[in-house]
Amino acid sequence: MSDEVRSRIEDLPNEIWLEVFDYLDWINLFSAFYGLNKRINEFLLSIKYLSLYSSYLINYSNSIYICFQEFPMKEFKQIQHFQLIYDNPYENELNIAKDFTRFSTLISLTIDANCGESGCNNEFGTIIFHQHCPYLQRLYLYGNVFDRELQIIDNVCTFYFPSLRYIHVNKLPFNMAMQLLDQCTQLRSFSAILYGYPERVSSILLPDRIRMGLPLLTKLSLGEDNYFETESSSTLFELLFPCCPNLHTFTVDIRCNDNCEKLLDPNWWAHLFASHNRLKRISFHIKWWTRNFRSNGHEKIQRFRSSSFFTELNANITSEFDSDFLRSVSYDLYIKN
């Protein structure tokens, strides 16, 4: 018999293994290789990028595959970038969100969660905003799950994101938005539709640190569904904008009543941005409605078109009109440069 030692797949160098892993999605990678031996397990658990689709984890009976029921999330101690596409909810709830606390090296977190009208609540958001992630820089929460209200006791969250620079959440309660702007001192970009403003608009107050200035914030995207005929957004803008001297890009998406006069006045916007000489990009969508058929929304739109402020920004202004016969009239104003 020959004394030659036969080559085995386990003898491949680390570089070859990692090259093979790059061609496989994590689900196939885990199901094919995890548990072969200690060395392979160490490779798998040392990955820095992890992307999961919930639809990949369930079978035809809408329950999680047996091989993933003991998904070793607690063993991933080096993950830096995590993405969860929650595209198919199922009865045995995926508990990955509850393991975020173990991702001490996490730099970016993206969750895209969509459910049916009778689907899951916003438990993801509640869990995330109670985590301590000292290195987290990017947080993106998409999908209709994040349109639902957060279940937060006393409107206070215990998150710790000292390195956070970029955040997008579909919707956030007003108090949490202020908490994020106050505590995340490295923020460059903030994007969210806000709800839950104080009942009295005059009682809107900014934390001391925000009033001292947010010099690093260069991109701001805010929105509101205002059904209460109050000037809550305009009041917030008047307080917040002087605190953002280096704002470069501003996006607004607001639905309001015809009585919100400031938001529908181009001169008010021009005054608001008067000291923001760094502002280069704007994108507005303002939708308002009225039951007063004598109110001419087209005149308001024309005032925006005639505004020298928006002309200097080379803004393209378009509009749409819709009438619900004998009930209300709505206008959509789009401004973008």
UniProtKB/TrEMBL annotation:
Signal peptide: none annotated. InterPro entries: F-box_dom (IPR001810), LRR_dom_sf (IPR032675). Residues 6-56 form the F-box domain. Gene3D superfamilies: Ribonuclease Inhibitor. This is F-box domain-containing protein. It comes from the Eukaryota.
